[in-house]
Amino acid sequence: MRVIADFHFHSRFARACSKDLTILNVERTAAFKGVHLLGTGDFTHPQWMAEIKRDLHSAPEAGLYCTDEKSPVRFVLTCEISSIYSQGGKTRRVHTVFVFPSLEAAEKFNQTLRKRGAKLAGDGRPIVGIPAKELAKIALDISPKAIVIPAHAWTPWFGVFGSMSGFDSLLECFEELTSQIFSIEMGMSSDASMNWRLSANDPITLLASSDAHSLHRIAREGNVFELSQRNQLSYDWVYATIKDKDSKKFPYTIKYYPQEGRYHYDGHAKCRFSCPPSQTKKLKGICPKCGGKLTVGVMARVEALADRPEGHTPKSPIPTKHLVPLEEIIAEALDKGVGTKTVQNEYEQLVKAAGGEYQVLLDLPIEELQKMTKPIITEGIKRVRGEKLHIEPGYDGEYGVINIFTPEERKELLGKKQDTLF
Ligand SMILES: [Zn+2]
Ligand SMILES: [Zn+2]
Fold first, then answer.
1. Cys bridge to 100: 35, 77, 339, 363, which one at CB 3.0-4.6 A?
2. Gap from CA of 55 to ligand 1 centroid (Å)
């Protein structure tokens, strides 16, 4: 049985997050999409924790929680903390995700943070002055089975490997605790093959998370687990699968294209200038339009820390499958906005018919899909599965642009359909 797991998104109590993010709405959305394992997110926030306690209870699977035993969705306790501190004479800003095996352990973690002066009520993702390593120590002292995951590891400002205020290695950040940090979150701007270029990442399990701020983005990126039986699932199973980096139990991650991330290429958004790292070197890091500093993106940062050429594949790899969210495929095929009624109706009808969003994106044969939806949408899904798309990389906070069809291709495809109709 396949389980799609997303450990990192936020509640309505985190900054810039949708008011619709309640536990019950999250559960409903995940069930509809065919997602089975979610982090609670934001358990450090007192009001969200109260909602967790009100709406979730222990599931039959040890260490997991559910709204109702009959629901296909299970929750695990997670939160994200932003640490801002000084180390080695530099300001460091690092986000870390924590996964805990029980409500009791999560509450102890909150108490300890409060005792250390952390203000937890202001934001679902609190900002603390406690170094990432200290947080890891607190978590692991409370529960040796806690999972400490450096969040969106490559993001320039808040990633552990970030170019602006991160570190050059996990060792530099976590020192003697490094061996207990066995996974990182790749973040939107990197994928597995980019991370494989660092031999230091060889023992590390690469995770994908949505970091969603609204319901429809939940599990837009995630981890695909394979269980021989549903009743195998438990906190310990998840812990061991991630820790052991077992590619049989964890065959791949699903992600957006890293180029779509806001910091893939280098560039200067104000001047609408972007370039690959090789050109940044030639420009000596200076924006050719204004003379200001270019923001160095994830690709350049990987290049700087990599000790292997592009194209290296490790033994028993857990690769990334690149996807485009179904709503966006439909929107592009129909040349309409994602939020429009036409797109939403088509999306809901197709997901219902197929029994889940990932059934549509990953599993169902094209011939089956043809019976459920329009030919141009089926063609879009086929192209996404074949990873044959038109890509403009993101830079300096600007999202990249991925197109499945050029306007000419769309016209041609729609024309074809007309021909068969008349
Ligand atoms: Zn974050
Ligand atoms: Zn500029």
1. 77
2. 25
